[in-house]
Amino acid sequence: MKKYQGLSILIVSLFISTVSAQRKPISARVDSLMKLMTLEEKIGQINQYSGREATGPVTRKQTYQLNDIRSGKVGSMLNVHGVKNTREVQAAALQSRLKIPLLFGMDIIHGYKTIFPIPLAEAASWDLDAIRLSAHIAAREAAAAGLHWTFAPMVDIGRDPRWGRVMEGAGEDVFLGSAIAKARVYGFQGDRLGGTDAVMACAKHFAAYGAVAAGRDYNDVDMSERLLWDTYLPPFKAAADAGVATFMNSFSTLNGIPATGNSDLQRHILKGKWNYKGFVVSDWGSIGEMVEWGYASDSSDAALKAITAGCDMDMQSEAYKRHLARLIKEGKADVKLLDDAVRRVLYKKFELGLFDDPYRFCNESREQETLSNPQHKLIARDIARKSIVLLKNEEKVLPVSAKVQNIAVIGPLVKSKRDLEGSWIPRSDTSLVVSLFEGIKGKIAPGSNLMYAKGCSIADTSQADFQEAINLAKQADVIIMALGESYSMSGEAKSRTDIHIPGQQEALFEAIEATGKPVVVVLMAGRPLIFNKVARKASAIVYAWWLGAEAGNAIAGVLFGDYNPSGKLPVTFPRSIGQIPISYTQYNTGKPVKSPDDIKYKSAYIDSPNSPQYAFGHGLSYTKFSYSGLKLSKSSISANETSELSFTLTNTGEIAGEEVAQLYLQDPVASVVRPLKELKDFRKVSLKPGESKVVRFTITKDYLSFFNRHLEWVAEPGNFKLMIGAASDDIKLETALTLVQ
Ligand code: GLC
């Protein structure tokens, strides 16, 4: 009997100690663990290796280091996914002395199993709820597959479409980019970390990576502090305010110092001014790359500069693993820097519940059930169609009647599947992708005659198949062409000096258009392309980005009118490469162009208008909207007052639709020159035919504020112009507001 009493006392005391340990604040649990750790074990926590599916240049024969994991020399893995794999590798970590579980991270940029539209496409939806849901589904699938962490959202402002990574972000605008950054962080992380249907998010690439010189990836970034604060930092601050768990360094420099070794960014701004408590992971090998940059003399110097500057985890360069212990023992690196980094990493592991159950994300039945959830593709289809932008629709060529008799679909992207997934997907599965051809086939009446010709390839020079396509076009009542980039033409390390539609595709379009029949062009790409001939001669143009697995159904739904397109461009489309970098936030200058006929001594090009091919915020609908009755509750306010701006939006057409009403502001006189307009808010409004709604914005001091030359966030007394637009170049209403002292 005594034996059993002893056993039950032991079990109860074990239970109490476990529960009390779990009830201790996480910071106390971190401190207790840190006290047990050796220097090597601490360094292990900030060392991250990639699994076999490398997403960067494998610097040396980086085998799958299970031995290092078993000896506690690795704190995190990237590119290991699937419950079976993560369970196996986690088991290795639990053989280490202190049994500290690993973090598993991966680039879940626009979906894990269900591939969603690329982020730039989703930004064109201006639908924050849909964007958040897209990130939530991606997180739910990734977490079910054993992942704890996604290296997303990429929140880099992108104003240079030569840069291939513009596809990963939310476009050119500070307000829209910041709003989307928050939506994606909330989508990935849920209301709080620790749920097994959510993952840690990662705001990247810190910072200003989108401004690389000449649009060439990994290049230098040189800009004023004011431009950095006014334009490139706000989406990162929005992500931090939304509680993003981690940040990732950029590969680029900022004003001569690599971001990975930049303490202004990581210590002064992020962990100082913003009081950020998460951790910063380097980009793939970016610590080691400071040697190539000429900022570090060798890998050891790079490790010292990175840990000093605030880079908490080393992705794949092994600089911390190889040098940090010696640097600390030699007194060159302060162990407090290491302790701070390790504490930040361990805190997240506790938050995720990994110490309570290291396998809590490794549930095979949840993986199977989640990854086969049929709802996910319907959600993907919904945001895909909301991301489509109708650029042009002359003589109402669109929508096409499903009863059309003879329809010709022509172009290299008509039957493509892999391209529709875009770049940055964990693994391609084209069996899940609906091509445009399949989407159209599913829409037209059974008796219709659907004719297909590829016409040419995406990028080669041959026109050999033009005639076959022309012959089909001559027989057709409706011609739909699908042109654009291949999936491998945008994304990381995909900068292009020429962003015209590649190959012979525009020549093919001109040959088809020469038949004299109206042509509908669907463009698919990861960035703005230049297509002036198509823009001039096509009867209708639909920009369909790369819309993911449900692309074909979404595009066909728009072409045949099941869904009235509502997308608006999140990025400016230039007429020529010569206009780049380009965005809608232009300045009046001292010599503004007042008339296109008078550009003598004006801020203008002699060979092109200043205006883009398509402006930020542009997007048409199959219906029409009217804007009227603009009111301001107060025409002047003091700094702590607000004024309510309202107007009436009416659907004056015959079909239901959604309009993105955009609020722009100009500060015409300020202590630093301000752009002619800046987006300050927007509403996406659904309206039935004939329906009107009053749209309201509450104007606060914040709407009027900017970073001045001293980097202070200020609203200066004076007059402001408030504009309501259907696009940045389509202002419908405007009024004036005065900020009094
Ligand atoms: C890549 C990318 C980064 C990504 C990381 C891990 O080089 O720059 O965005 O998260 O490596 O794949």
UniProtKB/TrEMBL annotation:
One of its GO terms (molecular function) is beta-glucosidase activity. Residues 1-21 form the signal peptide. Residues 659-728 form the Fibronectin type III-like domain. It comes from the Bacteria. Its EC number is 3.2.1.21. It catalyses: Hydrolysis of terminal, non-reducing beta-D-glucosyl residues with release of beta-D-glucose. This is beta-glucosidase.
